[in-house]
Amino acid sequence: MFYLKFIIKSAIDDFRRNKVRSILTSLGILIGVASVILLIAFGLGLKKYISDQFETLGKNLVMVLPGQGFGRMGGQGLIGGIEFDEKDVSKIKRIKGVEALAGFFIKTIKIESKTNSQISTLLATSADGFAVTNLKIDKGNFFTNADNEKGAKVVVLGGEIATKLFESADEALGAPVTIQGQRYTVVGILKKAGGGALGSEIDTRSIVPFKSAYTFNPNKKFFAMYIKAQDEANIDDLRKEIKNTLLKRYNEDDFSVTESSELMSTINSIFSILNAVLVAIAAISLIVGGIGIMNIMYVTVTERIKEIGIRRAVGATKSDILYQFLSESVILSLLGGFLGLFISFLVVAFIQRLFPAYIDLQSVLIALGVSSFIGIVFGVFPAKRAADLTPVEAIRYE
To answer: Which residue ranges of the chain lie beneath pLDDT 50?
Structure first.
């Protein structure tokens, strides 16, 4: 124990004599550790954010998407698939086990108030669209199925788009807006950061009755359909029934039928792979930092050759010299690791106001473990060089 204390104290004394060099040497490890920890924290935060969004849906939501959606890696995706129509909606509504169904038409539009204009995404759906996607109203009301049947020119605005068009949500409620030259009345404002099945982007969207949007959608098509099942236990049977119904009109590759938990699992897999790639890229800076430590330790060995010779002459063994320089390398790495961890905590604490990033115990252990490992791996070569010097060679070195 005394020997270990002596080795550590000796290393710290050397750092004090070369403070600037020690800090600069640790900087590479600091940047690498901070990069890795922050990317892991953002990845964890992203998973939590997605999980929170899908938790609002429940486990009884089935989504019918064009192409292969997210259900199959390398599939057709959401581009180039079919569009659904009211005949599809009518047939699926008759399937046993369907509690509610809403089709969605999507179009980028320009929406204007008397004083401002914004580019927004128009969602045209039935009144069931609000229930199926678990959207919440902040002010006013959702439009009704009666509004949809008569093609009423009413609109429900996302919280963000409402405040951009008007000074406040209160002022927006009941006010007229113009969508692509057509006059609509604002009947409701959604709660901000609505999320739900349509994502947080719902804050910037404008939702109108499907039949009032025929001008924008002359073919009366739906981009996607969301179905709420009556019983979660029978959701697999419901998916099969929906698929069999659609196969009577379309090819298997034209559409995908997926549930929220399956979509969540696929998205998590995609982000896990992406996060692993980003962490691997960030880890390159750790290797660069390790090389920096090795270079500095070689310089340190050269500067202290006479000191090494004197120590060997008064009885220090090869092992003593090896442990001395190896401990200095490890302490430099740990210093960078702790500083990188500290900076990561500060950054995450600030970011948490906007995004649910967080640092877990595994990240901390990885940071300190990697720091120690780098110190040992990159420190052992210069330490061995110091230990291999004979007392005579070292003392005579100029």
So the answer is: 71-79, 194-197
